[in-house]
Design a protein that fits this description.
The protein is α/β, with parallel strands linked by helices. Helix content is 44%, strand content 15%. The structure holds iron/sulfur cluster (SF4).
């Protein structure tokens, strides 16, 4: 059979029907990150950034939580919902940034800076969260740091987010870890200057995982959720987007009268693109792959997430 656009659409629709049936049967909720493929965003019950995903996972009354995202997001859902089945459709979907820090490295930091609490970006493993004092997301990182009384604060694993926090909270000494998001650091200052030249009326929105010299050019430094809020309240009709490509689908769908340009075609996270409709159907059919954080780690990691959810 020749594979045409029509047969692809039929194949996708069949999978969507199957997912809808299985979702009902399993009493499941599908939660998707803003960086997921368009067709995955379209079948999600809840869509958002890491903070929204954590909140949704904490509040759901469904038996099964399917996380369309990467491993640390499924771990956060499991930490907040130990009695529910948390499913990550693609077992290999990880986050290279999260893998740049581990417990040994944090213990070394704690030895060097014993008075500094550890603020841990949610883009981190459950083990890392368990040895941190409080978690944050890119939405609430500045508020989380402001909520702490300590003068020196360790932030990890993303260095650019740490530097951004430092610029927003000048009263505190931020000690950032050296990690980086391989997708966001692909965006250069030159890319942005070119995009601005091509779209002179557009506002430029950048994610705090981008380099400081990129953030300097931004009209707004935003988490993905904050990008939606910025667009909603802006009079501008055009936006250059400095974060992962997947968000363009959601923005264009929600704000049909506005135009969005990706700041660089290199803004793609390979791990976020692993989840397909086929994998979601497989996940619901066979309940794979379950992510369960061991109780001892969960208890400690939950404290940091709970503290974060209390801040904002
Ligand atoms: Fe990790 Fe960056 Fe991909 Fe987000 S976009 S999952 S931080 S590698």
């Amino acid at each position: 059979m020749k594979w045409t656009q029509k047969s692809q659409e039929k194949y996708n629709q069949d999978l969507k029907n199957k997912i809808a049936e299985l979702k009902k049967k399993r009493k499941a909720i599908i939660i998707a990150h803003n960086y997921q493929r368009p067709e995955i965003q379209d079948i999600a019950d809840i869509k958002g950034d890491s903070l929204a995903l954590s909140r949704a996972a904490a509040e759901t009354d469904k038996d099964v939580i399917v996380i369309c995202g990467v491993r640390f997001m499924a771990e956060s859902a499991s930490i907040l919902n130990p009695d529910k089945k948390v499913i990550l459709p693609v077992v290999e979907a990880g986050c290279p940034l999260a893998d740049m820090i581990n417990v040994d490295k944090i213990n070394e930091l704690k030895r060097r800076f014993p008075d500094a609490p550890v603020v841990c970006y949610v883009n981190s493993s459950a083990e890392v969260k368990a040895v941190s004092d409080i978690c944050c997301t890119s939405s609430n990182a500045v508020e989380v740091v402001k909520s702490l009384s300590a003068e020196r604060i360790i932030t990890l694993p993303d260095k650019n987010l740490g530097l951004y926090i430092a610029s927003q909270v000048p009263g505190k000494k931020i000690i950032p870890w050296e990690g980086f998001c391989p997708s966001h650091v692909r965006l250069s200052r030159e890319d942005v200057l070119l995009a601005k030249k091509l779209h002179p009326r557009a506002k430029f929105l950048a994610h705090p995982e981008c380099y400081p010299e990129v953030l300097e050019l931004a009209d707004g430094v935003c988490s993905t959720k904050q990008m939606f809020d910025y667009v909603a309240s802006s009079d501008s009709q055009e936006f250059i987007i400095g974060t992962e490509k997947g968000i363009i689908h959601g923005l264009a769908k929600e704000y049909t009268d506005k135009r969005f340009y990706l700041a660089s075609e290199h803004l793609i996270c390979a791990d976020m693109k692993l989840t397909t409709l086929g994998w979601v159907a497989h996940a619901l059919e066979f309940m794979k792959y379950e992510v369960k954080v061991p109780e001892e780690i969960r208890n400690r990691a939950k404290k940091g997430l709970d503290r974060m959810l209390e801040v904002k």
